[in-house]
């Protein structure tokens, strides 16, 4: 950063680089002609190496020629050689003092090799200081206007001298309205007035300037080197946001466990994104998402509902150069066609009765510089598709009711659970929009094709939700995991997440068991949809014709379990005790033998 102090100003910053210069052997007549042609008042006389010899002024030459000095003789014979000079790195203040003391109006400027590099006149000194003062004023003004803290300065009598932009925002008073007026007219008890009276500084004063606006202030007297008080300077830092965060800290404490649980899960799975997978196919899709994130390419994400398309869009966004800019998500299926233009492109002031009188920016405008995520893109009508195509191609649009085009820089990520290619074939989706969106295609496999993700997803969801409900769940029974792995999950990850949330609420203790699934009312659903065929009727007489021993054993076991359930009033805990087996074993055998389906409607406590 440049040194802006005026006492550091050097001769080189003020001297003239354009000056008269002649060789010491040049005839006097020729020197006079050069001076007349170029309107020089003086010339520097140098040797062949530009070494300084002397100086010749117009007045001195005229005087010599008038006295009979021959114009054919060399200039070195009459130039003034006993000349005071200065150096280019000398302080301009010192050079000025030398000129004042010696009562001279100009100084040759030499470099460290004693060669002439410039000329310094009294006018140059004045201009140098003036230019430096002007730059210093601009520099200090720019600093004060761009600093985050509010800066206020008053004279000893309380008159406001400085009131920067941050002070305008913090105190709600324009500089033009307070500058030159007494601070007491606005803030009678302000700490700056107290400092002005006592000359005692105030440090780190926390105060509420107005309702909900808090600041930390520092006010100090401004004392010159001679001890004179010339005013008070105060800096005020707005800490309203920090105070609000502190007040909310207690409310957020219970979420710490959830964050810790998720962190441990990420460490365990070596995963640095919000999208979890250990499945080979899906990991490849995730890696492609991270790689395409580094570009501005348009991405189309396809997959069934609940597979995590929005999470994948976030992975792209977080790995992009736009991750400091907005991420705006839009559910295209939720916007009525009549409101599509106003929602996506905004509207100008006064466009609608009851609308915002200043107008309203649309989603594209809000996402400027960032990423726009268009979810359920396949639900868009053809009319909406046409308008969407135009703005994606041109990167500009008109607000509803506006006449001036709005230019935007937006990265598009689209998602759908539909087969867009088939929609194009059915004339329900524009082919040109399809190819515009389908620059990079990412397809997320449904959960039934990546069941190896289920154990990890279960652990992550239980860690997150368990902390939310302040539970201490640490384990999941293996039979529960086996049952979850056997289910096809038509609602994909979202269905798994929602099911586990209800299970957590009804789980007592540290382990999710089959009882937890039963208490949450999801066990029968999981069991019934994992069986490939209907259950045999319990109590049906045995038919030994064409029956294998295994079938006969299973049929007898089914009868025994059913009889025990009847004797225990269909209470599974009592039935397990009666049979002398763990409850988990009873659940497994009921599932395997199809007893739960046959008992639908009974009280299976």
Q: How are the secondary structure elements laid out?
A:
Elements: E1 21-23, H1 28-38, E2 42-46, E3 52-57, H2 58-66, E4 86-87, H3 92-102, E5 106-110, E6 116-121, H4 122-146, E7 150-154, E8 160-163, H5 165-171, H6 175-178, H7 191-198, E9 202-210, E10 213-223, E11 229-238, H8 240-252, H9 256-269, H10 280-293, E12 299-302, H11 309-318, E13 327-331, H12 340-345, E14 346-347, E15 360-361, H13 363-366, E16 371-375, H14 382-394, E17 396-398, E18 405-407, E19 411-416, H15 420-425, H16 431-437, E20 440-443, H17 454-468, E21 475-476, H18 478-486, H19 492-505, E22 511-512, H20 514-519, H21 523-528, H22 549-567, H23 572-579, H24 583-593, H25 595-598
Parallel strand pairs: 1-2, 4-5, 12-19, 12-20, 13-16, 16-19, 21-22
Antiparallel strand pairs: 2-3, 5-6, 7-8, 7-11, 9-10, 10-11, 14-15, 17-18
Task: Please give a quick description of this structure.
The chain is 42% helix and 17% strand.
Strand order of the largest sheet: 8-7-11-10-9
CATH architecture of the largest domain: 3-Layer(aba) Sandwich
Count the helices. How many? Answer: 25
Report mean pLDDT, rounded to a whole number: 80
How would you describe the oligomerization state of the chains in this entry?
A: single chain
In what range is the share of β-strand residues?
15-25%
Shape: elongated
**CATH fold field value of the largest domain:** Rossmann fold
Category by helix and strand content: alpha/beta
User: What fraction, in percent, of the residue positions are helical?
Assistant: 40-55%
Name of the CATH superfamily of the largest domain: P-loop containing nucleotide triphosphate hydrolases
- The total count of strands amounts to 22
Number of domains: 5
Distance linking N and C termini? 77 Å
- CATH C-level class of the largest domain: Alpha Beta
Largest sheet: 5 strands, antiparallel
Rg value: 43 Å
Contiguous runs where pLDDT drops below 50 for at least 5 residues: 257-272, 350-356, 531-544
């Amino acid at each position: 950063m440049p040194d802006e102090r005026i006492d550091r100003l050097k001769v080189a910053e003020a001297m003239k680089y354009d000056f008269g210069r002649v060789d010491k052997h040049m005839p006097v007549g020729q020197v006079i002609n050069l001076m007349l042609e170029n309107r020089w008042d003086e010339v520097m006389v140098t040797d062949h190496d530009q070494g300084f010899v002397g100086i010749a002024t117009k007045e001195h030459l005229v005087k010599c020629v008038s006295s009979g000095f021959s114009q054919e003789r060399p200039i070195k014979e009459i130039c003034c050689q006993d000349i005071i000079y200065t150096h280019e790195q000398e302080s301009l203040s010192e050079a000025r003092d030398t000129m004042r003391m010696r009562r001279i109006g100009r100084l040759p400027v030499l470099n460290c090799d004693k060669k002439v590099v410039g000329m310094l006149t009294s006018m140059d000194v004045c201009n140098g200081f003036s230019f430096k003062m002007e730059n210093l004023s601009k520099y200090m003004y720019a600093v004060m206007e761009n600093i985050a803290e509010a800066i206020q300065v008053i004279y000893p009598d309380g008159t406001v001298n400085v009131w920067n932009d941050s002070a305008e925002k913090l105190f709600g008073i324009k500089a033009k309205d307070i500058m030159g007026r007494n601070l007491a007219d606005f803030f009678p008890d302000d700490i700056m007035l107290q400092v002005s009276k006592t000359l005692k500084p105030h440090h780190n004063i926390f105060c509420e300037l107005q309702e909900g606006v808090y600041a930390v202030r520092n006010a100090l007297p401004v004392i010159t080197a001679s001890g004179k008080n010339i005013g008070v300077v105060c800096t005020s830092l707005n800490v309203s946001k920090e105070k609000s965060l502190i007040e909310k800290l207690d409310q957020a404490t219970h979420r710490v466990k959830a964050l810790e649980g998720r962190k441990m899960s990420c460490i365990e799975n070596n995963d640095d994104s919000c999208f979890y997978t250990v499945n080979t196919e899906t990991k490849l899709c995730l890696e492609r998402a991270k790689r395409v994130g580094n570009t501005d390419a348009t991405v189309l994400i396809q997959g069934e509902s609940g597979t995590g398309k929005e999470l994948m869009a976030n992975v792209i966004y977080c790995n992009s150069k736009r991750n400091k800019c907005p991420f705006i998500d839009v559910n295209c299926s939720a916007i009525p066609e009549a409101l599509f233009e106003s929602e996506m492109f905004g509207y100008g002031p006064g466009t609608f009765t009851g609308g915002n009188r200043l107008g309203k920016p649309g989603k594209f405008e809000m996402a400027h510089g960032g990423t726009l995520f268009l979810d359920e893109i396949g639900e868009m009508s053809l009319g909406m598709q046409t308008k969407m195509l135009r703005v994606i191609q041109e990167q500009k649009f008109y607000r509803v009711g506006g006449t001036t085009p709005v230019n935007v820089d937006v990265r598009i990520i689209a998602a759908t659970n539909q087969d867009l290619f088939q929609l194009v074939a059915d004339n329900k989706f524009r082919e040109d929009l399809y190819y515009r969106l389908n620059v990079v295609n990412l397809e997320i496999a449904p959960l039934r094709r990546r069941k190896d993700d289920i154990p990890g997803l279960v652990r992550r969801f239980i860690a997150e939700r368990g902390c939310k409900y302040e539970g201490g769940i640490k384990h999941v029974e293996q039979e529960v995991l086996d049952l979850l792995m056997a289910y096809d999950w038509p609602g994909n990850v979202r269905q798994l997440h929602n099911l586990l949330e209800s299970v957590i609420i009804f789980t007592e203790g540290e382990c999710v068991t089959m009882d937890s699934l039963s208490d949450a009312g999801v066990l029968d659903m999981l069991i019934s949809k994992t069986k490939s065929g209907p259950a045999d009727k319990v109590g049906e007489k045995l038919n030994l014709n064409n029956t294998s021993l295994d079938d006969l054993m299973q049929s007898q076991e089914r009868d025994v379990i059913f009889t025990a359930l009847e004797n225990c009033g269909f209470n599974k805990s009592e039935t397990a005790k009666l049979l002398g087996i763990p409850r988990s074993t009873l659940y497994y055998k009921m599932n395997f033998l199809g007893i739960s389906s046959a008992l639908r409607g009974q009280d299976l406590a």
